């Protein structure tokens, strides 16, 4: 069973570097691991110092990496929806519907929705672990909120469509015809099942681990504390905070914030003057992440 690992945090805290390092250490322990970049500003390839694309590429033994092209995936999804609609809608209605779908798949929030569906695919994959290098914290929170929002929206659409289906069945019965089903209702019900499945995976601590990455800086720590509260509100279990680029804080406010978060800190990665890139340098971070890897590998 695949275990999902998310690293969230404010932009610039070092999520990508730590995602690469955690993935490397899991692979080094013999766990088949896939590292997935979901940040539109992909930098996994830069950190690994190799070309990474939309298909999994082998990095070292047991470790593969990919950068999701969410825009392309959304467009493909839109095409599938239109292929269903063209079979059941009158031509004039379909033309308007098609334009609406084209606008939606290029609109705000589509990346998060597309990723929600992909998460379910990854949860059923052949890998022991899938590690996500996420977009900055605001986008990540929208992603985690989305399943609950989609569930309400889909329930409304299904109720509306069920009314139409009931009427269609009655009309078919009066005409003495067989009712041939409703592809759009089937699509809505299939999508609702996927969303329910994703929700169950994300909120199950034996299937998903969420870590926050922070730096000893006031703005970062303030946002980290807010995000900890938000995760609790939406029922996503937090496995711990990784304090990256750590140096002993001299600012009293920063020191107090670090102390406030300290019960949740499971690893300190000290600041390194050298730029970290390439598999060899990534592998050397492992010692600081032992507690994270131990926590994850006890789950498999």
UniProtKB/TrEMBL annotation:
Q: Which GO terms describe its molecular function?
A: ATP binding; ATP hydrolysis activity
Residue ranges of domain ArsA/GET3 Anion-transporting ATPase-like in the record = 3-247
Q: Which sequence ranges form a coiled-coil region, renumbered to this chain? A: none
Q: Which InterPro entries match?
A: ArsA/GET3_ATPase-like, ATPase_ArsA/GET3, P-loop_NTPase
The record's listing under PANTHER family reads:
ARSENICAL PUMP-DRIVING ATPASE ARSENITE-TRANSLOCATING ATPASE, ATPASE GET3
Q: To which protein family does this belong? A: Belongs to the arsA ATPase family.
The protein's name in its UniProt record: Arsenical pump-driving ATPase
């Amino acid at each position: 069973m695949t275990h999902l690992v998310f690293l969230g945090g404010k932009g610039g805290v070092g999520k990508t570097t730590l995602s690469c390092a955690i993935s490397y250490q899991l692979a080094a322990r013999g766990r088949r691991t896939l590292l997935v970049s979901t940040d539109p500003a992909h930098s996994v390839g830069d950190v690994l110092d190799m070309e990474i694309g939309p298909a999994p590429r082998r990095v070292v033994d047991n470790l593969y990496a990919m950068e999701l092209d969410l825009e392309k995936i959304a467009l493909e999804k839109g095409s599938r929806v239109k292929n269903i609609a063209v079979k059941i809608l009158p031509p004039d209605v379909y033309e308007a519907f098609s334009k609406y779908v084209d606008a939606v798949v290029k609109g705000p929030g589509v990346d998060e929705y597309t990723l929600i569906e992909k998460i379910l695919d990854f949860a059923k994959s052949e890998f022991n672990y899938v590690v996500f290098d996420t977009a900055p914290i605001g986008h990540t929170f929208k992603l985690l909120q989305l399943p609950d929002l989609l569930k309400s929206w889909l329930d409304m659409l299904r109720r509306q469509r069920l009314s139409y289906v009931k009427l269609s069945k009655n009309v078919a019965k009066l005409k003495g015809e067989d009712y041939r089903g409703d592809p759009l209702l089937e699509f809505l019900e299939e999508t609702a099942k996927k969303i329910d499945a994703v929700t169950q995976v994300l909120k199950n601590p034996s299937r998903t681990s969420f870590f926050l990455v922070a730096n000893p800086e006031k703005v970062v720590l303030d946002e980290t504390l807010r995000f900890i509260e938000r995760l609790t509100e939406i029922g996503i279990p937090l496995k711990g905070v990784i304090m990256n680029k750590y140096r002993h804080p001299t600012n009293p406010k920063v020191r107090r914030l670090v102390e406030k978060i300290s019960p949740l800190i499971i690893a300190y990665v000290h600041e390194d003057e050298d730029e970290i890139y390439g598999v060899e340098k990534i592998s050397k971070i492992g010692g600081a992440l032992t507690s994270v890897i131990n926590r994850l590998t006890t789950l498999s």
